[in-house]
Amino acid sequence: MTQSLNNIHAVILAGGSGTRFWPLSRETCPKQMLQIVGEDSLIRQTIKRINGFVPPQNIWIVTTEDKAQDTRFHLEPLGALAKSIQFIKEPLGRNTAPAIGLAAIYINQFSSDSIMIVMPSDHAIPTSQKFLSDLKLSIKGAEEDYLVTFGIRPSRPETGYGYIKVDCTSQIKLKGVLKVECFVEKPNVETAKTYLSDGNYFWNSGIFVWKTSKILSEIKTHLPSLYDSLKKIESLLFSPDKPADPITHLANDLITYKPNDSITQLLNDLYSRLEPVSIDYGVMEKSTNVLMVPATFQWSDLGSWTALDEVVDKDKEGNILKGNTIDIGSHDSIVFSGQRLVATIGLKDMVVVDTPDATLVAPKERAQDVKRIVETLKQNGREEHLLHKTVERPWGSYTVLEKGNGYKIKRIVLKSGAKLSLQRHRRRSEHWVVVSGVAKVTRESETYLVQNNESTYIPINTKHRLENPGEELLQIIEVQNGDYVEEDDIERFDDIYGRT
Amino acid sequence: MTQSLNNIHAVILAGGSGTRFWPLSRETCPKQMLQIVGEDSLIRQTIKRINGFVPPQNIWIVTTEDKAQDTRFHLEPLGALAKSIQFIKEPLGRNTAPAIGLAAIYINQFSSDSIMIVMPSDHAIPTSQKFLSDLKLSIKGAEEDYLVTFGIRPSRPETGYGYIKVDCTSQIKLKGVLKVECFVEKPNVETAKTYLSDGNYFWNSGIFVWKTSKILSEIKTHLPSLYDSLKKIESLLFSPDKPADPITHLANDLITYKPNDSITQLLNDLYSRLEPVSIDYGVMEKSTNVLMVPATFQWSDLGSWTALDEVVDKDKEGNILKGNTIDIGSHDSIVFSGQRLVATIGLKDMVVVDTPDATLVAPKERAQDVKRIVETLKQNGREEHLLHKTVERPWGSYTVLEKGNGYKIKRIVLKSGAKLSLQRHRRRSEHWVVVSGVAKVTRESETYLVQNNESTYIPINTKHRLENPGEELLQIIEVQNGDYVEEDDIERFDDIYGRT
Does residue A80 surpass a pLDDT of 70? Predict the structure, then answer.
């Protein structure tokens, strides 16, 4: 590579909600945060995969405003690496072309020769030398001012993916890289079979490599309206009167935009008026400067529960049984359970996914229709698409054990050193029983310790704070009492996680 | 009828565990206690069906020692009727012939002309005049010293039932009653089809009517060893030196047998050595004195989840969807849910049953194999076949919300006036938070009230008692703390339900 490493940036797209993995995925716990395959969540695996190939400070996460804080918290287990990662927050999701364009604007500030590697955050790719050597090859293409994509050699007549057709007769100077003839829409099964036997058709992996200057000029050509908006956004973000640390104006800060911040308002307005369009449809299908690296690495887009068949080891009956399951005589089925028992008998090509508050049962061939269940839940104002019963927080987690008329019971877990916000509830009191560790409790002007097997009481309208001053995990059982026991009855006075 | 009503007794067999309705049925909540169809539990429906036809004090429940107390509590909603019902407790289950023989011994004490109607406790029969008029007809047969059974005209070539073949050429004085030629084992599907078209084959309903003297003489002929044991049991129970209230020696008392009670020991020894045999195999198939009343009433033995198809109304897609369910495009499927959400897509001939701690998924044709799941759970020492998360008690109920390392959380509900036993735990303390109603708490020598939104603490090794002195339901959240938080860490000093 002629590029210095410092000039290569990784842009990880993390705006998706992944409704197709419901009930395991939720709006507050999208697919990229799930550990479905491998030893870590998909987004953390994505970061680890690229870390080292690009410097940590060149890793960018593009996500939406509402997901940014949760995503940031989710990355904490990465330690110092997490702190280096920069966030680009979209005011709202507008598909991949605007997200990639926005990232290009940011990265282009460093150098118009900057190369960006665009990657989804929720695909399954085993970390391997193959991935990195394919990446090196793609960068050579990008240096030649091409848009480079990665094609996956099809293993079955898949009708759920778009295809890339390569032109093997074109002479490309770069060995191992192919000229793209065209992008092809999702085929029917007959056409997919011809693609499979043809040999010149590849699956579109959604991973792209290019110079920022190149993608911006291609956007200018094929999506001129988006380009105009991006230029306006650039001038707002990086105008001469705002030279101080422009890169982190939106990046890295997790403070909510203030509505009276006129620049932020303008940005939001501009962004929300962008046409939602994918980079594939908006640019890749139209550009004549596209090369493809035939991927030598394993890949799955994990498009639905059935995609697990490609990436998870099966038992000799073809089943994937995970968690607390008992099975008699099923085959070729996927059963995912947590603590609750799922008993299955004689299933064939079925998917069963169990979570503490919801269970899904469907034949594999209908797994895509899970998104229709999620839509129904949204329409009906249900919570099962939104939250899990256990909600991960920067300080630990809480689990709603039961909600009844006038009360709610939670188990709250605080990591060592964690500190909830100083808060007050207008309509509920709280009883706390410590079941492991030691709690430090602030109640108005008092501060005291509550040991394991001791309890304390927070009356209604009382300022209070819970901390874990010890080394051990603190677990408390909280019984809330009141005529209204929802999460939004909270007034925060001080919060080390910036949520006041 | 020439019999006076007072001479007719109803014997309800309630020793079954109903593993085929797992996970809704459990060892402590067998099928007869479920409200699967109709407005009440199956056993309470059975009692209501016969009540009035026989006097309340002539209703007998035969069940096993370990189920007697729970069954008695389960009948409490029947009020005064429940108090009249007499219990015959088998030391352990030995199939239907011993259970019926034991009941015959009891009822025969009144008069050898006593007529007993033997009924399972867990079948589905809509209460109707048809049932009662069929019953009247059967009693006429019993008066003529026949064993009378009820045959169900088959509606499909069922291979899961035994059949009764009638001899239509035999002349019987009683109009509408048929002579039984023979009992036939469960057929294969081809044979079942010929039975269906033949017209002389009926399903065996398991409901029988006969004189106590007649069934005892038939047992003497066909099961002489059982007869000998029954005579010994009779002499122990009703010996001249124990004339005082012999009927209630075993019946109606719920006090645990004392091991030093030699008569009880003898009874238990005798009973446990009986050969487990069904009345069908042991007597009905061999006797030549059997009549059959072709039932005009609706009937299902509810032999498995799929039997619901016969007795529950289906939607236009042929589905039975009950509870918190969302479905897209399933047909001919059964989905049973409670509070948790069960989402189903495109199921066909499937059964999905969800309970707070366990879910079952199986094709209808494999529903019978549920019992294999239950066996596996037993072998593995699991609790999911034994208890529900919510356990009904005479004083109310408790629900285990969570059990963790060193703690257990329960919601305890006490009916108005209910009073738990005075008790002590050696290895756990308890924190109680009242979330509705008022609690009266005894803690060693103190007694005090705890109001809604107040809490109290029961240290380890402290005698305590919880009561609901108010009109309102009392609900408390109990957080147990200790190195051992199982149900058997309890020492009872006084209990109004006789459990000390």
Answer: yes
